[in-house]
Amino acid sequence: MPVLRTPAPIPALVLASALLLTACGSSGDDAKPQETSATGHPVTLDNCGHKVTLKAPPKRAVSLDQGTTEILLSLGLADRMAGTATWTDPVMKGLEKANASVPRLADNYPSFEKVLDAEPDFVTASFVSTLGKGGVATREQFDKLGVPAYVSPSDCSGKDNDSGGDGSRGKPLTLDAVYGEIRDLARAFGVEERGEKVVGELKERVRKATDGLNASGVSLMYWFANSQSPYLAGCCGAPGAITRAVGAKNAFADTHDEWPQINWETVADRDPHVIVIGDLTRKQQTAETAEVKIRFLETNAATRSLTAVRKKRYVLLSGQAMNPSIRTVEGIEKVAAGLRDFGLAK
Fold this sequence. Notes:
The protein is of the alpha/beta class and about 350 residues long. The protein contains 13 helices and 14 strands. It has helices at about 10-25, 65-75, 95-100, 110-115, 140-145, 175-190, 190-210, 240-245, 265-270, 290-300, 305-310, 320, 330-340, and strands spanning about 45, 50-55, 60-65, 80-85, 105, 120-125, 150, 160, 170, 220-225, 230, 250, 275-280, 315. Helix 5 links the parallel strand 6 and strand 7. Helix 7 runs parallel beside helix 13. It starts with 11 loop residues before the first helix and ends in a 5-residue tail after the last helix. This is ABC transporter substrate-binding protein. InterPro entries: ABC_Transporter_SBP (IPR050902), ABC_transptr_periplasmic_BD (IPR002491). Belongs to the bacterial solute-binding protein 8 family. It comes from Streptomyces misionensis.
């Protein structure tokens, strides 16, 4: 659940310079027939209703959200990244060294100017809102500068991003959307074999985590952030994919909103068996860390008598695991392990 801020306006001089660079770099290309390179380029991706064409593998990609950043790093592309931004958690384990080699443009949204200063030849984002009004910049702004912009298909496939809040889903998200993003980005960079390897490893992790697991009848509640008006997971986003994988049910499966804000009295009525808690390191909402969330649950009059609270049935996840990303698989593993530890899985 990204929190948006309005980026700073970009000076005319910077825009003019960027346009000049783009014009110089593409001079005469449009008049020539495109030839296929050894990497299969040019490549055109069908992406959230847009055609994204890359004439060559990117050399200076900028990832505007942590989800796409961790995919690029997992594909071994740190040396072709010029910047990252918008972080909710520490980087995924095993990627620390690669991540340290890539400049961090901002912990949250960078300004459009900051992104252009990195001289990107490809921009990726996890959320439609990142490349929309109120985000870093629109796709059209990048298109005018000749910079291809790609959005995670998991944030647009079967999802209405204009319904308010964090959007709503008419169709449940599946991990195939995440796997599709990995394959898209691998193709964009000409490293398809790496993409298939990453997808294969993720599928095997899901198989191992859920093998023989039966948690039917167990209700889960996913709390991302905010104590006054908590953001809790609806039916069909990443938490829905986790819930289906472990064979449990979501306490708020009756809402299609991605992250609806639901009052604690309603939570008490649903009385979930297990609470899956977002353990975030950012500082944008109240109750970001798991420690603060648990303290609230155990002291608040509306929540301290919940079954999950009395029995301390908490599963802690990174924010990235609760958003559609490569780490949703990590979410499946941790929730499955928690259900077994609590004696709730048959």
